């Protein structure tokens, strides 16, 4: 089984393109598309398009209705995405109000039903990204006392994985088969069933249609009291829970997410073994990508045993500028300001002498002087040492933990 580095925080094609210039093998993830928005948006083609160089690329999809999820997933499959990832981990309060994202962890049977429905009708893999749990405080606000379950315990996490993977126990299967839709739903505020076809499918649970790969953000999600940003850093990390899952579910693959701030840390997590000797399928990196993206230039060397792309930092930046200019000619950048297109470049030279001046010059050239992207970039790069701009040195494997986000 291959070991993957998976990059999130790439919300748009132009952001993913520059990552692909730095690494040929990193698996890229799209922003989270919402099923109804994708189905009805007049800008859909621009939202879901991507450059062919971005493969392998996975589309994140959010929603709670299996029919709408399938309709949206088919659009993404037709566009050429390599897989669909059902997002059960987004901590946004707006997303929670829409009854998807991390809120779906309260309804594992519904998640299973979505997964099996997509698996039956798509030819690309369907995976699930989730948290290790959601807070009990939020759940207490939703339920009567006799329905209370600890939704942030390891046992409840196992129940979620067991059900969504289709590996439920005999007791799970019997209770599911005999329960009403309301009883099968743990979340009483989930959209009500309007017709028999809207409900959770009452057929025999079949493991072959369950999820076989979970990307676990090793923090619980506090749906009550924390913002989306705080939920990405405040709840403590429990990597050990993910390694326990490797032993408790030997036929399922797991990737880990959350708090990975250096390539050395990612390497350690991939090489660490569970008690039974199993290892993770992958490590998802988000914050390192936004804080110090040039570290991704060394991923192919350190994680895939292949040479890094031959482009220097200067050549990488200018290839990105050429890409943005071509997108503008094709009419794809009409929804993005030049400042937005600059953002992926802001931290390329982080912690390098002249980097702050470079960033400020590029920003002011665009926002104050209204210069085109190429001119603004060249103005900023003039403050970076030429040796740094044209450096093609490979990474040093003895300094893996130094390839990290700034403190």
What does this protein structure show overall?
This protein has 407 residues and is an alpha/beta fold. The protein folds into two domains: 4-179 and 208-304, TIM Barrel (Alpha-Beta Barrel); 313-390. It contains 19 helices and eight strands. The protein has helices spanning 13-22, 35-40, 44-48, 66-79, 93-97, 108-121, 136-142, 154-164, 170-178, 181-184, 239-248, 263-271, 287-291, 299-304, 313-329, 338-342, 355-367, 373-381, 386-389, and strands at residues 4-7, 27-34, 57-62, 83-88, 126-131, 213-217, 253-257, 282-285. The chain has an eight-stranded parallel barrel, surrounded by five helices.
Summarize the structure.
The chain is an alpha/beta fold and 407 residues long. 40% of the residues lie in helices and 11% in strands.
What is the CATH class name of the largest domain? Answer: Alpha Beta
Helical content band: 40-55%
Question: What's the CATH H-level superfamily name of the largest domain?
Answer: Aldolase class I
Provide the number of structural domains.
Answer: 2
CATH architecture heading of the largest domain: Alpha-Beta Barrel
Q: Give the uncertain stretches in residue-range form.
A: 143-150, 178-184, 192-198
Secondary structural class: alpha/beta
Number of strands: 8
Order of helices and strands: EHEHHEHEHHEHHHHEHEHEHHHHHHH
Task: Provide the CATH topology of the largest domain.
Answer: TIM Barrel
Gyration radius over CA: 22 Å
């Amino acid at each position: 089984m291959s070991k993957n580095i998976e990059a999130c925080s790439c919300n748009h094609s132009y952001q993913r393109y520059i990552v692909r210039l730095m690494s040929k093998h990193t698996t890229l993830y799209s922003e989270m598309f919402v099923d109804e928005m994708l189905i009805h948006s007049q800008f859909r083609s621009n939202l879901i398009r991507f450059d062919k160089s971005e493969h392998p690329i996975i589309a994140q999809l959010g929603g709670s209705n299996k029919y709408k999820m399938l309709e949206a997933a088919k659009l993404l499959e037709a566009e050429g995405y390599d897989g669909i990832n059902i997002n059960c981990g987004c901590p946004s309060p707006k997303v929670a109000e829409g009854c998807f994202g991390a809120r779906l962890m309260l309804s594992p049977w519904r998640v299973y039903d979505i997964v099996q429905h997509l698996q039956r009708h798509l030819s690309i893999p369907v995976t699930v990204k989730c948290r290790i749990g959601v807070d009990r405080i939020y759940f207490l606000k939703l339920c009567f006392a006799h329905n209370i379950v600890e939704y942030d315990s390891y046992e409840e996490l196992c129940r979620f994985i067991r059900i969504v993977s289709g590996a439920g126990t005999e007791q799970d299967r019997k209770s599911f088969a005999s329960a009403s839709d309301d009883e099968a739903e743990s979340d009483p505020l989930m959209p009500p069933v309007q017709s028999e076809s809207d409900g959770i499918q009452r057929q025999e649970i079949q493991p072959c249609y369950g999820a076989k790969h979970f990307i676990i953000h090793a923090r619980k999600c506090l749906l009550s009291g924390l913002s989306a940003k705080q939920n990405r850093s405040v709840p403590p990390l429990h990597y050990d829970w993910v390694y326990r899952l490797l032993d408790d579910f030997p036929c399922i693959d797991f990737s880990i997410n959350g708090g990975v701030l250096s390539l050395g840390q990612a390497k350690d997590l991939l090489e660490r073994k569970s008690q039974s000797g199993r290892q993770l399928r992958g490590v998802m990196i988000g914050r390192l990508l936004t804080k110090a993206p040039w570290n991704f230039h060394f991923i192919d060397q350190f994680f895939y045993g292949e040479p890094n792309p031959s482009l220097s930092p200067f050549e990488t930046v200018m290839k990105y500028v050429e890409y943005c200019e071509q997108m503008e000619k094709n009419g794809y950048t009409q929804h993005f300001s030049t400042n937005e297109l600059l953002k992926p470049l802001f931290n390329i030279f982080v912690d390098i002498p002249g980097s702050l001046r470079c960033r400020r010059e590029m920003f002011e050239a665009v926002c104050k002087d209204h210069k085109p992207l190429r001119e603004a970039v060249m103005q900023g790069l003039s403050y970076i040492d030429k040796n740094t701009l044209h450096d093609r040195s490979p990474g040093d494997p003895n300094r893996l933990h130094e390839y990290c986000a700034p403190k």
